[in-house]
Design goal:
Blueprint (H helix, E strand, L loop, with lengths): L6 E6 L3 H12 L4 E4 L11 E4 L2 E4 L6 E3 L2 H8 L4 E3 L5 E4 L2 E4 L4 H8 L4 H11 L10 H9 L1 H16 L29 E5 L4 H7 L4 E3 L8 H7 E6 L3 H4 L9 E11 L9 E4 L8 E4 L11 E10 L8 E2 L3 H15 L4 E3 L1 H4 L6 H10 L5
Parallel strand pairs: 1-2, 1-11, 2-10, 7-13, 11-17
Antiparallel strand pairs: 3-4, 5-9, 6-9, 7-8, 12-15, 12-16, 13-14, 14-15
The structure holds flavin-adenine dinucleotide and uridine-5'-diphosphate.
Length: 367
């Protein structure tokens, strides 16, 4: 311990990455301060209790992993209720089960077996003599024209504000493609929703750790740097370096929440609106994550929008321009000795929660 500093570690960002590292460092006997510019902890996992409905304030969050260490770790802090995420797609009033599986193919084409479904896809899929160069080629070669046009193109172009030809192929490979009747959106061994939402998980992680909210690191950067021997920064990396090479692009979101005096709105936690014209991408009905019998319901419409300074940067846009720009910032970050970096924003990666936890469990907390 270096007593020239009040803290051994300052954690900038009380999201899942910052909370897991803070927990480990605190447990190792380090003096830790966590700050966040928001008025709550938990980053994008944060939930709000609306009359016994746990509202996922920053979009639907389903925990899924095949990593037992990660699963056991989070289960120490909160009980997880088993949950199988099975969103639906609404294309101009037609309802299709997701992810793409025999139930989807049956609803689209009336096919009843894997062979019939494969034959139908084969008829209309794009045959490439090279690796798919973008999301459009990837989707057309994998599932063919009907699915691409009804379930992928409109949704993806709204979500990312870019044409499918400009987006990387791997984004669509996040979704399983199956030829049996199985509407589970994930392939992972473990899947669940924390009982009481994500706040108990974050509160458990931050128990005993000093936290200051409504505090932006950049408002008092020198003061904060002087307080701690090491600084873990989980915000946007380009901002850390004052945008010196130019700005990374992010996708932002606007959430429109509505409380309805009815027991049920859509009968499912998430319905995706996959046409281009509907301005939102999905409607979340939060009570379907954990139904405690409330007489009312709360829904959230999720509207994608381009990020500009002042908005929340929810998704990195990992296209060629941003990947090479990020690499320049990363070179600077890798050479730092006082500063550590991690999480979705500093790594500029489309991480899910289990990936963030796995990385935070490996981070150097021994300072
Ligand atoms: P964040 O949660 O973004 O936390 C970073 C924190 O740092 C924020 O609280 C921010 O306010 C703070 N911060 C940044 N800069 C500063 C600064 N200068 N000063 C002070 N504080 C600062 N994952 C899943 O596994 N399953 C899902 O179903 C799922 N759904 C998602 C849906 C949406 C709409 C989104 C956006 C993400 C979803 N995720 C999901 C991903 C999940 O949210 C992330 O993997 C995880 O929350 C990342 O944690 P983090 O700590 O890296 O980042
Ligand atoms: N996607 C789609 N149609 C859907 C759902 C997803 O085309 O109904 C595509 C879209 O490009 C999206 C990607 O698949 O960005 C990944 O979807 P996921 O549900 O993993 O997105 P997230 O929940 O992370 O926003």
């Amino acid at each position: 311990m270096n007593f020239a500093f009040k803290y051994d570690l300052l954690v900038v960002g009380a999201g899942l990455y910052g909370a897991v590292v803070a927990h480990r460092a605190h447990k190792a006997g380090k003096r830790v301060l966590v700050i966040d510019r928001r008025s709550h902890t938990g980053g994008n996992c944060y939930c709000e209790n609306n009359g016994n409905i746990f509202v996922h304030k920053y979009g639907a969050h389903i925990f899924h992993t095949s990593n037992k260490e990660v699963w056991d770790f989070v289960n120490q802090f909160v009980e997880f209720k088993p949950f199988i995420h099975s969103p639906l797609a609404n294309y101009k009033g037609e309802i299709y089960p997701l992810p793409f599986n025999l139930n989807t193919f049956d609803a689209l084409w009336g096919v009843k077996s894997a062979e019939e479904a494969k034959a139908k896809i084969e008829e209309q899929r794009l045959h490439l003599d090279h690796e798919p160069a973008n999301l459009e080629e990837q989707a057309l070669s994998l599932v063919g024209k009907d699915i691409f046009e009804k379930l992928i193109k409109g949704y993806t172009e709204k979500q990312w504000g870019r044409s499918c030809e400009e987006l990387p192929a791997w984004i669509i490979r996040r979704l399983p493609l199956r030829f049996e009747r199985n509407n589970n959106y994930f392939n992972d061994t473990y899947q669940g929703i924390p009982v009481g939402g994500y706040n108990p998980l974050i509160e458990g992680l931050l128990k005993g750790v000093e936290v200051q909210l409504d505090t932006d690191y950049f408002d008092h950067r020198e003061k904060f740097d002087a307080m701690a021997e090491r600084v873990l920064y989980t915000g946007e990396l380009d901002r850390f370096y004052n945008y010196r090479f130019g700005k990374l692009e992010y996708r932002s979101l606007r959430f429109e929440e509505e409380q309805l005096q009815q027991k049920d709105f859509q009968g499912a936690a998430v319905v995706n609106y996959t046409d281009r014209e509907t301005p939102f991408t999905r409607i979340i009905e939060h009570k379907h994550f954990e139904d405690r019998g409330a007489e009312h319901t709360v829904i959230t419409r999720e509207y994608p929008m381009e990020w500009s300074e002042g908005a929340e940067p929810y998704y990195p846009i990992n296209n060629e321009r941003n990947t090479s720009l990020y690499a320049k910032y990363r070179t600077l970050a890798d050479a730092e000795t006082k500063y550590l970096f991690g999480g979705r924003l500093a790594d500029y990666k489309y991480y899910d929660m289990h990936q963030v936890v796995a990385l935070a469990l490996k981070a150097d907390c021994e300072i």
